[in-house]
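Reading a protein record of the kind used here takes little practice once its layout is understood. The fold follows as a row of integers, each naming the local backbone shape at the matching residue. With these conventions in mind, the following record can be read line by line:

_____
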Amino acid sequence: MPKPSWGWVVKGLMLSFSLLAGFTVGLLATFYIQFYLPADTYDQTRQGEWARLNARLLSFESEQDFKTAEALLYRKLQDPDKSESLTPYYLLASLFEASGEDAKAIQTYNAYLTLAKALPWQGHLSQALSDDVYASLAVLYYRAGRLQDAKTSLSALPETATLESAPLLNAMGDVLADPNRGDYRYELGKAFRQSLDLPMAKKEFELALLKTQDPALKLKIQNTLLAKMPAHTLQLKPLARYLCLAADNLEAQVLQGRSEKPDQAENKAIRLYKQSLEVSPEFEWAYQQIAHLYQKQENYPQAVHYAKLALSYNPDLYLSQLTLGDIALAQADYPAAVAHFNDAGRILADLQDDYHQPLLVNVQTQIGFSQELLNNPNQALSHYRQALSLGRQTPFADASDIDYARDGVKRMEANLIRQAEINPQKKKSLLAKGI
């Protein structure tokens, strides 16, 4: 049996919800903080009095949680015992950034930097967190159109800085250095899209279209990105974005083997995605994420329900077609599997880039396998051959897909030869086809 397409679905989801934003949630950020901070400072940000105020550790599930944390942090800033502590400024700025209050985030991050410079004995702490602060400020300034301030913040980052937002920051640096390069705008648009900053992604894609003279790049942007960003997705509210990124981080922990209780993590992720839909009910990606998780749990009725909801908002969401195809295959509904994989293949064929081509190899292999199970050797042979042909043109095609397609060609040719031995007319037809 070929590798299920849900493995590629996972890759697609992680690209779509990659934690590349200036604000990074969850355990990835925890690792960053833990690596760079002294133990006592790290404990401050994730345990004790600060734990429930740290937006980077998935503590919040409603707007009221943000408001409560904000009030508590403001009280901490008035506490004489905390008057020389950097921690509340850092957490408060992160809180504002997570909740979409960019102006307050900028003001508070700058307050943090001012205090850090005034407290030289906390240099180890200020240096540890300042890289993260400057990275966040660069993104916030760029979004606000304050390009010189964005450049200044980027220039404050040492070359050795290790940040999860590096792809976004690098793409932003390229655009700031040469704003007339359409390919730079395109890469920045992709980075913003991966961090679910969809209005900024759309803006950069449109600028890329205006500035590029490359017909292939123009076609790629038009077909792949602008057409795949329905207007309603651009209205994603900050809390919904936060909840989606938080849920996605839980998925990442499970996939990377970093979750002690994967079942609980996946169930919490489902709950967070559903909460995001209460805030932004038309965001189709959240429906697909829920469908994927239910599929993993073999709760097929719920998986089908949410995949179809995703398609109702965006009929070109190929990941949902792959989910439905995998479920149909698991339930031995081979005609339905062929139909869904064909729909996914039709959508993928229009996406002309190096990422989607390997997925199309997998889809053609899946169709061949489904047709083989339907005892349609001619159709199966055709799709296996298409998979091999695409695989030869695709440097990143999965070797297991190519191997299965190659074996499938051999099986179907042998099958057709056996049939030809019984039916002389079929033998003539096969000889004409070179089998």
Remarks:
- The longest helix spans residues 399-422.
- The CA atoms of residues 238 and 405 lie 44 Å apart.
- Confidence is low (pLDDT under 50) at residues 10-43.
